Amino acid sequence: MKILRTPDAQFENLFEYDFLPNFTTVTGADGTPLRMHYLDEGPRDGEPILCLHGQPSWSYLYRKMIPLLTAAGFRVLAPDLIGFGKSDKPGAMEDYTYSGHVAWLNDWLTQLDLTGLTLVCQDWGGLIGLRVAADQIGRFKRIVVGNTGLPGTAMLTDELSAFMGQMYASVPVPDAGMVREQFQAGGPGAFLYWVKYASESPDFSVRDVFKLLSGITDERVLDGYVAPFPNDAFIAGARKFPALVPLLPQHKDERLANDRAWAVLEAFKGRTLIAFSDGDPVTKGGDAIFKARIPGADCVTIKDAGHFLQEDAPQAFSNAIIAFIRKE
For FRET with 208, which of 77, 181, 223, 225 sits at 20 to 30 Å CA-CA? Predict the structure, then answer.
């Protein structure tokens, strides 16, 4: 496994990101040691909040929320998943698997030995984080899900998965504009365009992804999001993530693993908050699945926000989390 590490110079003077780095070493399935970066802010005796990002973001996504949460007395931890941010980046797409990401984060959490956690997860932060929560449920007191999912066999039957596999074969290799058109149209195959764009398009660009899925126009912010990726050699993890969503027939084992996670989450004795935004083209309607399977959950809609609700509505999302934690 070839490992890349983004030069520190890439992270100098980033807009609105002035946090001290922390590192630990996790071990990949093949025994490869990988350096994993995380933020650890706020009072050490404060209740811990674990904030997980998705694709293709990193802990920079939580830069606006961290000061709000720490000011309320909480300790906030925000790791960069392997392949993202200041964490090490395996250089080949085949180095990344869904279960591999779960194993890396499980290793990190075990080493930090955190308990009494409130999990805040969005996008792939949910697909990975909810699996980790299920694996180590005794460490978690609360779970906050926003703009994410956990596809299992109830959502994706073998028949539906086979149909999506046939659809995927017919999808052309799109550019970012075509992906945007598909999401705007709301067609059932829109996500397959996203998968094929990320994994196969020669024009894939992290900057274009943020333009596609957000309303960010400030180039300083976009520079912050693309800082971990100085050139295309560093983006294998970002390219691979959409293709790891367990939609297709070859992903059956991961759907079954998600079924096992759902069984733990449905029996969770702690509290859950479902906090989806009102303007996410990617996970629109996904909150209904969580509401149906966790009927006792608290629910809130984060208004005037898109896919990256941490970026679009940091105050509202933070306020919802703080109120949820304090509501005992």
Answer: 77
Which domains, ranges and CATH numbers included, belong to the chain? 3-326 (3.40.50.1820)
- Give catalytic status of residue 123 as yes or no: yes
280 is catalytic: yes
Q: Catalytic one among 53, 101, 307, 312? A: 307
Q: Is 53 a catalytic residue?
A: no
- Cβ atoms within 10 Å, residue 219: 10
Q: Dump strand ranges (E) for the chain.
A: 3-4, 22-27, 33-41, 48-52, 75-79, 89-90, 117-122, 140-146, 271-277, 298-302
* DSSP character string of 98-155: HHHHHHHHHHHHHHHT--SEEEEEETHHHHHHHHHHHHTGGGEEEEEEES-----TTT
Instruction: Express each pLDDT in 24-68 by its tens digit.
Output: 999 977 889 999 999 999 999 999 999 999 999 999 999 999 999
